[in-house]
Design brief:
- The chain is built from 32 helices and no strands.
- The radius of gyration is 26 Å and the shape is globular.
- 76% of the residues lie in helices and 0% in strands.
- 50% of the residues are buried.
- Helix 30 crosses helix 32.
- By secondary structure, the chain is mostly helical.
Length: 680
């Protein structure tokens, strides 16, 4: 009997705790806004009202339309298109982002911001409109005159200041360190300005080119897609699939965040958006606040690696690796599945350990209501089909998908108009629906323009970082240093590269993060003999997990703010949950077949995927300390060892790993049966 009381006490405490938090877990709009402003630089924007708001909105809408038109139809020189693009970004950036949050007042923009905005934009427009004459003269750095050097310096400084305002300081710290190193090597200022401002190896380098050509159109597409209600559909569908199972709300967070995160392109933004729904549900079910916030942060961060969009980084990867975008999305499927499978396993084991239940089935949407809304997936389906079939360009595919998203949003708009004007006739209903559709289009174009600012600025600064690395030859020195330290050990080189990626990726947006990794660390792995695809995916993954790895774990801290938990504990929990993100890159580094590289047949991919997921199970169970019952320390060691041995390719290591994990699972079953008999 004593054992029974001891067994049920934690369950009683858990139930009491759930009842205590049930009335206090709701998250208000004000709290969400505060969280976004604290952890997401994009949310600290000016407040425009009345006519100023209308003017700023018009600027954003026109910019989005220009970007779509330019991507589809304009064939002018690259320098003309990119400098015009960045000039517009400077204008929009200063209209939206103040020098500090203390300057956020209705319809207020200080005089010096107007001057900085006008002068900074003028520098880029000077290069744009004078390209015809300058291109014949500026064939090298020695051709720059003092006025052109001054224009380049001012244009770069204004872009860096805008980066501080809307992206953050971490990426500027990386750039600052590289600039100091650049000057220390004796590189003349004239040559540096030519490289960073007037050539296609700096502010208008590859990242900005990809942003202007592909990313901006997909950001606009994402803005339209969000307004169709697809995020709510993803959450409702995830609820129906997993909500009633053990610890259901946490599994819902994993599924919905994976689906929503690929569209949002922001780990913090997705954590706050879906976390406002899922984190309170998890706390109410009985999960600890630190665990609830960690689940959402880990899953939302994983949205950046979820095809087909992958937080817009897929387009950059295609450009850097020289392969079609469709292939990048295809290669990302299995690693993403393994990542989320790892989180799902950890969540399930935690729920079993705590004895948590799922949601009541009566609280879930019926299948009939969900299946009616399947049409919301049409824009994504059309996009994937057009891109994968290679029948149209990516820009054209995105433009068509935007039109589909507008059409998809019409049924709900008409229904809402019918409810609001039921007694006023069909003409009033149609008129209201058309008016609401126009408002949605304007709001989507405005959101697309605003969302482009931070990505474009981050890409421009990332281009400058790559320019400094190229101008100084730092990349080759890094490669030589890592190769020398690793002493030709691929595993050691991978480990050192992993550390570099996590450190350099802290507080840096997804797109800029990958650009830095591709310029600095990917060549190291390629030099060590890894295929280019494996190297780029490896650095991309470890740059992403910086969002949940303490001490600068912005997504985890955003989740902790919503969960009202300890930030550092939430970050540690998120890192444990995302253990797959630390394992999977090593799997495809040693076994490129996971990325569909050099495969002999489907069975080879299946074998690697199966052994990898069993290995992830072993490591996750070791960290959670529970399978069917409590896992003692010696079993944890065996599980971790068996799981890690499955990472390394080879028949012998696979057999050993499978055998060890199988033995522990059998022991766990026997221990559970023994406990049941003891209680009975």
């Amino acid at each position: 009997m004593a054992k029974k009381n001891k067994k049920t006490a934690p369950e009683a405490e858990l139930k009491l705790a759930a009842e205590q938090v049930s009335d206090s877990v709701a998250v208000t709009e004000e709290e969400l806004e505060d969280v976004m402003k604290k952890y997401d630089k994009e949310s600290n924007t000016r407040i425009w009202q009345g006519m100023p708001h209308t003017i700023v909105t018009a600027v954003m809408v026109l910019f989005s339309l220009y970007c779509i038109y330019s991507t589809l139809f304009v064939k002018s020189a690259l320098e003309i298109r990119l400098t015009a693009f960045l000039g517009g970004i400077v204008i929009m950036g200063f209209l939206y982002y103040p020098a500090s949050k203390h300057h956020v007042k209705p319809n207020y923009m200080p005089w010096y911001d107007w001057i900085i905005m006008i002068v900074g934009a003028a520098c880029f427009f000077y290069w744009c409109f004078s390209y015809g004459s300058l291109a014949r003269v500026l064939t090298s750095a020695t051709k720059l005159n003092n006025m052109q050097i001054a224009i380049g310096v001012i244009g770069l400084l204004v872009m860096f200041e805008l980066c501080r305002r809307c992206v953050g300081v971490p990426i500027l710290c990386v750039l600052g360190a590289l600039l100091i190193y650049t000057f220390a090597t004796g590189l003349p200022l004239r040559r540096l300005i030519y490289t960073l401002f007037y050539s296609t190896g700096g502010v208008i380098g590859t990242p900005a080119q990809v942003c202007a050509k592909f990313i901006v159109v997909f950001i606009v597409f994402g803005a339209f897609l969000e307004r169709t209600g697809i995020s709510k559909f993803f959450i409702d569908m995830a609820n129906k699939i997993a909500g009633s199972s053990s610890g259901g709300p946490a599994k819902v967070a994993v599924i919905s965040s994976a689906l929503c995160g690929m569209v949002s392109g922001s780990s913090v933004g997705n954590t706050v958006t879906t976390g406002s729904v899922t984190i309170p549900m998890m706390k109410k079910t009985g999960y600890k606040p630190e665990f609830a916030g960690a689940v959402e942060a880990a899953a939302s961060t994983g949205g950046q690696i979820m095809p087909p969009i992958m937080g817009a980084a897929a387009f950059l990867m295609a450009e850097y690796m020289g392969i079609p975008y469709g292939q990048v999305a295809l290669k990302a499927i299995l690693p993403a599945v393994l990542y989320f499978a790892g989180i799902f396993i950890s969540v399930h084991l935690e729920a079993k350990k705590l004895g948590l239940k799922g949601l009541d089935r009566s609280e879930l949407e019926p299948w009939k209501a969900l299946l009616i809304k399947v049409y919301l997936l049409a824009p994504l389906v059309v996009l994937v089909w057009l891109v994968s079939s290679n029948t149209r360009t990516m820009a054209y595919s995105a433009a068509v998908s935007i039109v589909i998203a507008i059409l998809v949003g019409l049924p709900q708009t008409i229904v809402d108009a019918g409810h609001a004007h039921r007694s006023e006739g069909i003409g009033k209903v149609i008129g209201n629906a058309c008016g609401q559709t126009v408002k949605t289009i304007i709001a989507s174009l405005e959101a697309g323009g605003k969302g482009t600012i931070t990505v474009a600025v981050a890409c421009a600064v990332a281009g400058c970082i790559a320019g400094c690395i190229t101008a100084t030859g730092l990349a080759s020195k890094l490669i030589s240093g890592i190769v020398a330290i690793s002493q030709n050990s691929v595993f050691l080189a991978l480990f050192l590269t992993m550390l570099c990626c996590i450190v350099l990726g802290m507080g840096v947006p997804t797109t800029a993060n990958y650009c830095i990794m591709a310029a600095t660390t990917a060549p190291i792995l390629i030099k060590m003999g890894l295929p280019a695809v494996s190297a780029h995916f490896f650095v991309f993954y470890f740059g992403i997990v910086a969002d949940i790895t303490p001490p600068v774990a912005l997504a985890a801290y955003a989740g902790s703010a919503i969960a009202k938990s300890n930030p550092m504990k939430t970050g540690v929990n998120a890192t444990k949950l995302a253990i797959a993100a630390f394992i999977v890159p090593y799997v495809f580094a040693f076994s490129p077949s996971l990325l569909f590289e050099n495969i002999a047949g489907w069975w080879e991919v299946a074998q690697i995927a199966l052994t990898a997921i069993i290995g992830i199970f072993g490591v996750s169970a070791a960290l959670e300390g529970h399978i069917f019952t409590r896992v003692p320390l010696w079993q944890r060691i065996l599980l971790a060892g068996g799981g890690l041995s499955l990472i390394y390719p080879g028949l012998l290591t696979d057999v050993i790993g499978l055998g060890v994990i199988a033995v522990v699972v059998v022991i766990q079953i026997l221990m559970r049966n023994h406990e049941r008999h003891a209680v009975a």
